[in-house]
């Protein structure tokens, strides 16, 4: 019997006829139904630029403030209490096993995107040492991706999530292209992947750097907004 | 030196000024064993950088193979050793006196001991003489319970009873930092942070969730206790494992079958309501139950209405509203206003509470009646039913009350609960228990 990686409750495996018809090993579920439905999806009524959940489809106030510096972002879930609780355990407590909760959903979301090259947002060396994993690439199963960006050394005084909006918007460019990036980015449609879109500062910094590398277009996908 | 008190008898991942730590995870064959919770780390619980980490005690901060745990052996060096005196002014009943003597004797012999005392017997007060003795000897003592509500309710009582002893209350998400004290009141999870620290551990409500079903927490008690230490288990409803230990004479036991006011336990009355679940799905409650609730409301009798699941709270509240009873207040484990609602109930500002089994133990309301709706549901184990019945008649002014269980049919758990209460009452009668 398997238990849900998040809530620890036992999962009842359902054997279906179509499942039996396919030869080979049955895929075992690792997350229970209830945990999969804890998050609120972003519905069709969202901001066309940043993907924020709204009651209509007009551009949101945050995106109007960004003005010409626009970036099209799609979000899968709303950044609500359930998603915060998930990120708290996965990213901040460092429970790497929880990556499995969103892996299937990310496969589905990536299918709906139109891109040539997937670039996840990197983490800096110090975070890699303490956390032991990149929370974004953890969600990727076997999709090909290219780590085109690295974090510049000696930039980080405090994490983005600990800053206010004004402080976050003041952040200097934290990213740098890797050595062979321009060759691979040239004339490609790049999709940036990140965990949460909050102010959009991080993704815009990343997008600017990718464009400098010669990419044709940059859009982004985040798990939550 | 002063700052090192933080490590006395504890094992934490923060290093002290000097002293080497030991690895937090040690290899056992091809797997790892966590040195904080003593559970096996599965081979799949691995970070991207290749280190393994323990998921069992993740809530207390992640431990990986790169981390170390630091400890300083418990020196029993408390800041003010003013003669620990019992500042409690109450008196014990003859039965309580006897039990207190037994607890003290077992403590002096450093034996593990089970105090099987009925709900409302005054278990806390029974331990006071032994506790005073141990504190006077300069022992370090932990009073722990799997239920945070029990700890929160107990801490002020202990602070009153032992006013000269330094005390600290520990639980997950507490606002105050840790301090080194002679008497620690904590949840059983907090014991994971201790290593051979306590001379005596009192485990209150030892059969409660999650301690009952968690080998990790049971192990935590063993590891938090000194090699020379012992523990005292308190419960009204020991589970089958404990009862087996008692039968095999592997664990000393003292019975207190009578409440301190010498009135017998209220028996559970069963009312059969067929297909209550289907009726509830149609938004209706059994007429019997509605009349019962209306009678209590008319008499001004406060009561608790126990229901099986959190999901049942809302439908029952709506069904009551449909028959004109609008005062219903619901409470469950995840309710952020739980404390306030319980306090409102205790202050008689609300006539009744609809609750899940969260209020089955550790709470006292003077003059309360109990209705169990859906007593045939699996969540109402024998222990749970006996504990729920034990909410009634706890104060000396109101030593009696009604316990009614509405169910589709008699179940084994309900019958066993009735039998357990009857047996305890029979023993109580021999000791001079009265019906009212």
Automatic annotation (TrEMBL), chain B:
Domain of life: Bacteria
Helicase ATP-binding domain mapped to chain residues: 104-256
GO MF terms held by the record: helicase activity
Region (Disordered) residue spans: 1-22
Residues annotated as domain Helicase C-terminal: 288-436
Annotated keywords: ATP-binding, DNA-binding, Helicase, Hydrolase, Nucleotide-binding
Name used for this protein in its record: Helicase-related protein
Species this protein is from: Levilactobacillus tangyuanensis
């Amino acid at each position: 019997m398997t238990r849900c990686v998040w809530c620890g409750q036992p999962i009842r495996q359902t054997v279906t006829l179509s499942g039996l018809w396919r030869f080979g090993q049955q895929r075992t579920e690792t997350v229970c139904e209830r945990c999969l439905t804890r998050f609120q999806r972003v519905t069709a009524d969202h901001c066309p630029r940043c993907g924020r959940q709204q009651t209509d489809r007009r551009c949101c106030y945050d995106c109007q403030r960004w003005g010409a510096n626009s970036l099209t972002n799609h979000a899968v879930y709303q950044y609500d209490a359930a998603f915060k609780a998930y990120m708290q355990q996965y990213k901040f407590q460092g429970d790497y096993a929880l990556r499995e909760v969103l892996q299937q959903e990310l496969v589905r979301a990536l299918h709906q995107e139109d891109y040539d090259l997937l670039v996840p947002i990197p983490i800096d060396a110090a975070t890699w040492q303490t956390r032991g994993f990149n929370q974004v690439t953890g969600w990727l199963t076997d999709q090909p991706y290219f780590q085109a960006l690295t974090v510049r050394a000696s930039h980080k005084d405090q994490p983005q999530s600990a800053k206010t909006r004004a402080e976050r918007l003041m952040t200097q460019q934290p990213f740098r292209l890797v050595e062979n990036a321009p060759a691979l980015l040239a004339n490609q449609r790049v999709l940036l992947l990140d965990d949460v879109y909050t102010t959009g500062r991080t993704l815009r910094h990343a997008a600017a750097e990718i464009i400098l590398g010669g990419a044709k277009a940059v859009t982004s996908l985040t798990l939550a907004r | 030196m002063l700052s090192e008190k933080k490590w006395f008898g504890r094992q934490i991942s923060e290093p002290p000024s000097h002293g080497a730590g030991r690895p937090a995870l040690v290899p056992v064959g091809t797997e790892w064993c966590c040195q904080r919770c003593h559970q096996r780390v599965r081979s799949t619980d691995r970070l991207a950088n290749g280190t393994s980490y323990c998921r069992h005690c993740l809530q207390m901060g992640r431990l990986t193979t790169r981390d170390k745990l630091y400890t300083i052996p418990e020196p029993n060096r408390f800041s003010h050793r003013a003669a620990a005196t019992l500042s409690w002014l109450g008196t014990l009943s003859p039965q309580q006196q006897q039990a207190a003597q037994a607890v003290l004797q077992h403590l002096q012999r450093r034996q593990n001991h089970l105090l099987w005392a009925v709900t409302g017997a005054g278990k806390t007060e029974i331990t006071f003489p032994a506790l005073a003795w141990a504190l006077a000897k300069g022992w370090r003592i932990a009073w722990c319970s799997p239920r945070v509500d029990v700890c929160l309710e107990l801490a002020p009582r202990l602070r009153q009873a032992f006013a000269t002893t330094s005390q600290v209350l520990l639980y997950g998400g507490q606002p105050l930092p840790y301090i080194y004290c002679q008497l620690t009141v904590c949840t059983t999870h907090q014991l994971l942070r201790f290593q051979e620290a306590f001379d005596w551990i009192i485990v209150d409500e030892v059969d409660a969730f999650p301690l009952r079903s968690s080998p990790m927490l049971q192990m935590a008690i063993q590891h938090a206790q000194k090699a020379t230490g012992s523990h005292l288990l308190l419960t009204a409803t020991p589970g089958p494992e404990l009862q087996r230990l008692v039968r095999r004479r592997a664990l000393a036991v003292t019975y207190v079958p009578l409440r301190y006011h010498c009135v017998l336990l209220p028996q559970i009355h069963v009312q059969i309501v067929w297909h209550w679940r289907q009726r509830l799905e149609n938004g209706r409650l059994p007429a019997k139950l509605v009349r019962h609730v209306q009678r209590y409301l008319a008499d001004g009798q406060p009561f608790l209405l126990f229901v099986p699941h959190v999901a049942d709270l809302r439908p029952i509240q709506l069904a009551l509203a449909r028959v004109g009873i609008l005062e219903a207040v619901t409470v469950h484990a995840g309710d952020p206003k739980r404390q306030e609602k319980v306090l409102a109930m205790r202050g008689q500002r609300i006539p009744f509470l609809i609750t899940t089994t969260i209020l089955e133990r550790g709470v006292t309301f003077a003059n309360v009646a109990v209705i169990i709706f859906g007593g045939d549901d699996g969540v109402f184990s024998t222990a749970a039913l006996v504990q729920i019945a034990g909410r009634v008649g706890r104060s000396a002014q109101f030593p009696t009350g009604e316990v009614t269980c509405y169910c589709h049919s008699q179940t084994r758990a309900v019958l066993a609960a009735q039998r357990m209460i009857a047996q305890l009452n029979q023993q109580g009668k021999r000791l001079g228990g009265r019906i009212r």
